[in-house]
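In response to a reviewer's request, we include the raw inputs and outputs for one of the modeled complexes. The two entities were modeled together in a single run.
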Amino acid sequence: MTTKATPDTAAPVVQAQGLSQRYRIGQGLLRPAAMLHAAQNLSFRIEAGRTLAVVGESGCGKSTLARMVALAEPPASGSLLLGGIQVAGASSKEQAALRKRVQMVFQNPYASLNPRQRIGQILQGPLQINTDLKPQAQRAQAAQMLERVGLRPEHIDRYPHMFSGGQRQRIAIARALMLSPALLVADEPVSALDVSIQAQILNLLADLQASLGLAYLFISHDLGVVRHIAHEVLVMYLGHAMEQGDKDTIFERPLHPYTQALLGSTPTLRRHASGAKRIVLQGELPSPIAPPSGCVFSTRCPHASPLCHQERPTLQPFRDRLIACHHTVTLAGPAENAGNGSH
Amino acid sequence: MPLLDIANLYVDFPSHQGVLHAVDDFSLQLHAGEVLGIVGESGSGKSVSMMALMGLIAFPGRVRAQHLRFAGQDILRASEAARRSIVGKDIAMIFQDPMTSLNPCFTVEFQITESLQLHKGLTRKQARIRACELLEQVGIADPAKRLVAYPHQLSGGMSQRVMIAMAIACQPKLLIADEPTTALDVTVQAQILDLLANLQKEHGMAMVLISHNMGVVSEVADRVAVMYAGQVVELQSASRIFDAPQHPYTQALLQAMPERSTGQARLHTIAGMVPGMLDRPSGCLFAPRCSSAQAACATPAPVHSGAELEVRCHFPIGTLEQSAP
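The model returned the following structure tokens for the whole complex.
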């Protein structure tokens, strides 16, 4: 293992093992704190040029995961390697170098750009802090980056309010790319945009990935978008990984009851044509402060048995995927399906 | 006679830069028990058109129309008192964000019983019993306990159920649901859509469902209106519009959906942007972005209307294919 902060290009861009995060909340003068387990035991790796999509409902821990990978907060436990370098063991100087390798794009482009800064200032900010480039060289790089994301260099002296939502998201992506990162953590980057604009931004992200070999950690609740952009998918519920695997595996043959419900309750045009019935889950997400004992999904699962209420299933390999469910074997049926897909 | 008959509705917002035409020549007929979906991107006028119907356009907005008839009565020209007796009772509305549309200072009971006491003349006690029934109807467990709750004590899905209970309290003939599920998670969204569909069938209400999500609309609506820059560009039955769109904008919008292009690396996009207040074209509003625009498109697009279909286009897709073999 190297101790220097020179990332290994052969190593995966991100390698996470047993990543967990918990928050202490609700502590008062006389009231003891409650523990909120926002993310538990998440493991995954993302190679250069690949996209891992994290899907799940609000409060499932997607954004906590994003913040941990973006080094915005250290995980409570587990190990995180960026380009083969252990983050937890790195010195603060090495951590600063690692931070350059991971950049974030946020959901709302109306809130994530400072309205008082010109586009040039916004884009040059990362360079001012992290490089010793002369202002003119910084400006030239910013102008170049604007072209790269489909805007014009002369936009550099404008303010964010002069741009539409889609253009602002392009600026946010440009800012994230200023330091030539290896990984882009995109937290719901197209949720605030209209369909036609969303398509433009998704195309831009695909182009950038192809030309720069970027890895994406793509967080979204929109399964249509995920299906389009992802290579691998991680389905989360109440901080736990439910099912994890190749995009086609998860979307074509979802095995976990929660994945099935999530796919089944997404409104699509296709169902209109086929006339199939929507799957509707009962109830709402339980409180993450007092999660159900046993399987966290057991309170809403149509297949829950007494075992599910007592014992929490672990994430295990099953045929072509990882899945955390006690009833995988009975729900999956005979193996012929998986046999077709696995070669 | 249709339940709702809107003819040539215009909503303008004057400003010191010019006049914003938020809704431009909007006409619509809706029969009792029918579900109409309105889809369009942000700023296309889908919400504003329905707010004009509810009388919610504030100064300096201007509402003009040939007529705005509800059950035969022109509510644009009716007296304030007559309008108030209809709006909130026979026409009810559900708003997008349940967290901000409920009043945080009052209990659920107060907010539901208010319209019951006002429109139906119930006493407080009667209204309370009715509120309990309503909460049960919208699928809230333990309604008596929830009546004394304040909005911040409810989850998003629960708040939206309370909003729906308020809206159906006086058994409206028309329910307008403005993005009722946009702020909710998909599994809760499915529950709310089912609830709305069931209530609509049970009560025989007409419903207008406004959404930017074509998947949501396709699952609930009988007919779908597509809006662009304040105009209805296409109005067709839900069973046909998604498979055989007639307007180039509808077609482009469908092609831009990730769902429609699985397996392709790139999504279809629509070039350019929705025209704003200052760069509104004089001819067909979609022409600058339309891939099949021709010289004739520099003049305002005519509305072709057939039995089941209305398209605002010089060259609707079906006719174009026929004329160019």
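As requested, we also summarize the result in words. Residues 186-203 of chain B form the longest helix (18 residues). The domain at 4-90+172-275 of chain B is CATH 3.40.50.300 (Rossmann fold).
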